[in-house]
Write a structure and sequence with these properties.
The complex is a heterodimer of chains A (765) and B (165).
Chain A (H helix, E strand, L loop, with lengths): L8 E4 L17 H6 L14 E7 L5 E7 L1 H5 L3 E5 L22 H8 L4 E2 L5 E7 L2 H9 L2 E6 L6 H4 L12 E3 L5 E5 L2 E9 L2 H7 L2 E9 L11 E6 L5 E5 L4 H12 L6 E5 L15 H11 L3 E4 L2 H7 L6 E9 L5 E13 L6 H7 L9 E9 L13 H19 L3 H8 L18 H9 L2 H4 L9 E11 L6 E7 L5 E5 L7 H13 L6 E5 L16 H28 L7 E3 L2 E4 L2 E4 H10 L5 E6 L7 E11 L6 E11 L6 H20 L31 E6 L19 H14 L5 E2 L3 H11 L1
Parallel strand pairs in A: 1-29, 2-15, 11-30, 13-14, 17-18, 21-22, 28-29
Antiparallel strand pairs in A: 2-6, 3-5, 3-7, 4-6, 8-9, 10-18, 11-16, 12-13, 12-15, 16-17, 19-27, 20-21, 20-26, 23-24, 24-25, 27-28
Helix pairs in contact in A: 10-11, 11-19, 15-16, 16-17, 18-19
Chain B lengths: L1 E3 L5 E7 L2 E7 L5 H8 L18 E4 L2 E4 L12 E3 L12 H8 L9 H14 L5 H7 L11 H17 L1
Parallel strand pairs in B: 2-6
Antiparallel strand pairs in B: 1-2, 2-3, 4-5, 4-6
Classes of the chains: A alpha+beta (765), B alpha+beta (165).
Chain lengths: 765, 165
């Protein structure tokens, strides 16, 4: 008996009716998760297991003069100590897999254990394996490291100056024109995207708004800290258990980093306690493997929260400039953006993705976007939910709001007039397929919140803001293997780590295709030996791509059942029809369950399988509305009401689509109002705890109203668009626009923390 | 009872989920460490190890605590309830059922802590307002759900439990 106390609104722009898709079953893995029985990476303990810990740099930028590990090695209970010398020489090899392939492997390896130099506070120096975690922690204190401390460079605008200290002495800018700079600098890469003629476009404009924005570093904030357990057998087989967004990615990276045959590496994906882009690449796994090889024992490593914040890789801070030209009747004539993101201690920020998204909601005839990937003395940055898009669209959506205010045009009307639609260009991509930005904007306009005037309160500064967001989503490779059991149930193996209900959204697509109930599908997240290649859970790709593999595997199974029944019934295979889970031909009929039993007697056991690399992922748009109240004494901003509208293509598993929307909103609100790495001038991170890095609690936010818009993605048989990432994109801009509506003040830095809002209010007054 | 033995470890007798339990612990080990690593009760999770996230919530002598901030030797003579003791052999607790039906979890790693904390709330206040639920659960961090469905699940469970009481 399911009680839906919360069913959000859904607005369909299609006529498809489904039996399983769009329903609200209880997720397959739910029981184990509400009883505490589900096994996450840190929950396994192997016989003979040792515990690993990592020594980290107290300096942001320093040369390592010497490391003396003899004191640690002499401590009772210590079994091994390793430094970067334990890694094979990476030479000039490039990385594969993950969301950012193609970077020099030496950077990835040196990020795991510093080679010669430390690039940030918290950079790993050495790792210890010991009988228990406390002994390992004691041993770290006995490692003697001599440093030559260097001046740190913390912000992109400082790191890009010609006289800035160069952090990586042999880093030469990969320029947008394909050439390489001749002098080393902190700029790892430049990128340039152009459409039309921006100079001509700005010349046509009646109004040009040109603004600069800056960003603090933020962390993904998953509640489970990083962990890995490795067992290197004496015959070279390496078993790894970890909480990662991609077991196959970890396997590939281990093979590359350890120069070890990939067939000897077996990665078991444990349940994962959140990732949001922060667990897409190997980090601890190679250290656990090296320590296991050295000791002959399984080695378990689990990071503490301070180390997670210091070192695992937050998402960049940086700089965005956005300039938009419009005519007096509110048509955009040109856009220019300049994005510089901090990569952290090694190259590879998410600036390219930010560039692609900055103007995505709009069809403008002329645009130019420049991006810079800049090395600074902060942890190597990683993806965080729609990586780069939140920064970029905070800037562009704030400028759009300013234009609407200046020209006195309704912000919904402006966005509808200029909206991107099917056939319009997108940066570095083919023209848009069918997309749902206009449908989302109309749904937002018609929503209860937008239609209800903001309640005023005496002495209170209240305001409302609206903003659009876009994320392009990703296809990549996914595999499914499904076995038909004799009772007609199906065991479904898939390779995508399930972070938020995707076992069920995949099983639902399989069930819909084969015509069985979702309860008759048992989905299992399989290890790297048991299922075909499956790339990382990222880019909002799992329900789209692994769901497509499930759909195709169901059709493969269906074909095998049909062949078996054709033999049994002595009819032509093409005479057998399949409807509502029943196969019929020539007076014979069998449900899937009956067919399974019949075929078993004949020795036929259908196994449906598919590996697919879809590329028509379809973009995802969202429109959010925020009502806020600003305390003009303290600068604190409270969210009074919030509505999230999003094009899900077709929502396979609506409660979890709503969950992605609501979760993304609250992460976005945290980013908007509070979350930020605080550094001192020497580059020490000062707030490496969950008390001081303050994420939203239940008390900080209201219920989040959701409206799912369904504009089917033509690139998927069920119309799926990825839903996981785009909901974090609009909140900071919606909040900033609401703060402006409340106070008349424009905020140009994230987060818009109480101190910053208070200072901005004081400056205005 | 806690008795120091020769190895420097302490012998602790306690009660967990109604069962009498003995364990040996180093004095520096937290209750969370002992539950997870010595006793195999891995439902309580370490999210921060300093009392900020609530993923390790257990109830000790009727009080909701962060087990990462309790030394294991303090468990001597106490009665401890963990997530493993919330369901009965007959079935799930109404909160667990409500979390499933309301889709009040995503990655699930914070879920045991939320359920233990919410159970403690409903034992103290069977009819909380939405604000009271949010206030009580402010010691538990969830990064996936945005709290909406968790709060609804707790209110829904409270209603069911009142109806059954």
């Amino acid at each position: 008996m399911a009680v839906d106390t919360r069913v959000g609104q859904t607005i369909k722009h299609h006529d498809e009716e489904y039996k399983v898709i769009g329903t609200r079953p209880i997720r397959h893995d739910g029981l184990e998760k509400v009883t505490g029985e589900a096994r996450y990476g840190s929950d396994i303990n192997l016989p003979g297991q040792l515990h690993g810990k990592v020594l980290r740099s107290p300096h942001a930028h320093a040369r390592i003069v010497s490391i003396d590990t003899s004191g640690a090695e002499a401590l009772d209970g210590v079994r091994a100590v390793i430094t970067s010398a334990a890694f094979p020489d990476p030479g000039d090899k490039l990385t594969g897999g993950g969301e950012a392939p193609g970077l020099p492997l030496k950077f990835k390896s040196a990020n795991m254990l510093a080679r010669g130099k430390v690039h940030y506070h918290g950079h790993a120096i050495a790792a210890v394996a010991a009988a228990n975690p406390h002994v390992a922690a004691e041993a770290l204190k006995l490692i003697d490291v001599e440093y030559e401390v260097l001046d740190p460079v913390l912000e992109v605008w400082d790191a890009m100056k010609p006289d800035a200290p160069v952090i990586i002495e042999d880093l030469y800018t990969a320029k947008a024109d394909g050439t390489t700079a001749e002098e080393a600098s902190n700029v790892a890469a430049e990128m340039l995207y152009e459409v039309g003629d921006v100079d001509a476009g700005f010349a046509e404009a009646d109004l040009v708004v040109d603004r600069e924005f800056t960003f603090g570093v933020v962390h993904q904030g998953y509640i489970e800290t990083h962990n890995a357990t490795a067992h290197w057998l004496k015959d070279g087989h390496l078993h790894v258990w970890c909480s990662s967004q991609g077991a196959f990615t970890i396997r590939q990276e281990l093979a590359d980093l350890l120069d070890h045959p990939i067939t000897k590496i077996h990665v078991v994906p444990m349940e994962i306690g959140g990732g949001f882009g922060g667990k897409t690449t190997a980090y601890l796994e190679p250290l656990a493997a090296l320590l296991s090889r050295q000791t002959g024992h399984p080695v378990k490593m689990a990071m503490d929260r301070a180390d997670v914040l210091k070192a695992t890789g937050p998402t960049p801070g940086g700089y965005v400039r956005v300039k938009l030209g419009v005519t007096n009747d509110g048509m955009i004539t040109a856009g220019y953006a300049n994005l510089a993101f901090d990569a952290g201690g090694y190259p590879g920020s998410v600036v390219g993705a930010g560039c692609r998204c900055v103007f995505a909601p709009y069809n403008m005839p002329n645009a130019k976007v420049e991006g810079f990937d800049v090395v600074v003395n902060k942890p190597k940055t990683h993806a965080y939910r729609a990586p780069g898009a939140t920064h970029a669209e905070f800037a562009s959506e704030t400028v759009v709001d300013e234009i609407c205010r200046t020209l006195d045009i309704d912000p919904v009307e402006f966005r509808l007039k200029n909206s991107a639609k099917e056939g319009d260009w997108q940066l570095a991509m083919p023209p848009y397929p069918r997309i749902g930005h206009i449908e989302c904007m109309e749904a937002a306009r018609d929503s209860a919140q937008w239609q209800t005037p903001l309640e005023t309160a005496p002495g209170k500064k209240r305001g409302r803001g609206i903003a659009s967001g876009f994320w392009f989503n990703i296809g990549f490779t996914s595999s499914v293997t499904a076995k038909l059991n004799s009772d007609g149930s199906v065991t479904l193996l898939e390779g995508s780590t399930d972070i938020g209900g995707t076992r069920t959204s995949i099983a639902m697509q399989f069930a819909e295709t084969l015509g069985i109930s979702v309860e008759d599908v048992d989905p299992i997240v399989a290890d790297t030996d048991s299922v075909g290649q499956t790339d990382v859970t990222g880019g909002s790709r799992v329900t789209f791509a692994t769901g497509l593999a499930a759909h195709n595997a169901a059709n493969d199974m269906k074909d095998q059942i049909v062949e078996g029944l054709a033999d049994l019934w002595d009819v032509a295979a093409d005479s057998i029809t399949h409807a509502d889970g029943t196969f019929s031909a020539n007076g014979n009929s069998a449900t899937v369950g009956e067919a399974a039993g019949l075929l078993e007697e004949e020795g036929v056991f259908p196994i449906g399988k598919n590996t697919v690399t879809p590329t028509r992922e379809g973009g995802a748009f969202a429109v959010h509305i925020a009502d806020v109240e600003v305390d003009d004494e303290t600068g604190k901003v409270e969210v009074l009401r919030y509505t999230a509208v999003q094009d899900a293509g077709v929502a396979i598993y609506p409660p979890y689509v709503e969950g992605q929307m609501q979760g993304g909103v609250v992460q976005g609100v945290g980013w908007a109002l509070n979350e930020e790495y605080v550094y001192d001038d020497d580059g020490h991170l000062l707030n490496a705890s969950l008390l001081d890095y303050r994420m939203p609690t239940a008390l900080d936010v209201p219920n989040i109203e959701t409206i799912i818009v369904e504009v089917p993605n033509p690139g998927h048989p069920y119309g799926v668009r990825g839903v996981g990432e785009v909901p974090i994109v609009p909140p900071p801009a919606a909040m900033a626009n609401a703060i402006h509506d409340a106070t008349g003040v424009r905020m140009s830095h994230l987060p818009m923390s109480p101190a910053r809002v208070q200072a901005a209010l004081a400056a205005e007054a | 009872m806690a008795t120091e033995i020769q190895s420097g470890k302490v012998h602790v007798q306690t009660t967990i989920n109604g069962e009498s339990v003995d364990f040996l612990a180093e004095p520096r080990e937290s209750l969370l460490e002992v539950l997870r690593d010595n006793l195999g009760l891995t439902g309580a999770k370490e999210g921060c190890n300093n009392g900020n996230c609530g993923a390790c919530n257990v109830v000790m002598d009727g009080v909701l605590v962060n087990s990462c901030c309790v030394l294991s030797v303090e468990a001597a003579g106490a009665s401890i309830e963990t997530i493993e003791g919330v369901a009965s052999p007959e079935g799930l607790h109404p909160l667990q059922q409500s979390f499933l039906e309301n889709a009040a979890l995503q990655c699930g790693v914070c879920t045991p802590g939320f359920i233990v904390a919410a159970k403690a709330l409903l034992e103290e206040n069977p009819n909380p307002t939405e604000y009271e639920v949010r206030w009580w659960l402010a010691g538990n961090l969830c990064r996936c759900t945005g709290y909406d469905k968790i709060v609804r699940a707790v209110l829904d469970a409270a209603e069911r439990m009142r109806a059954e009481a």
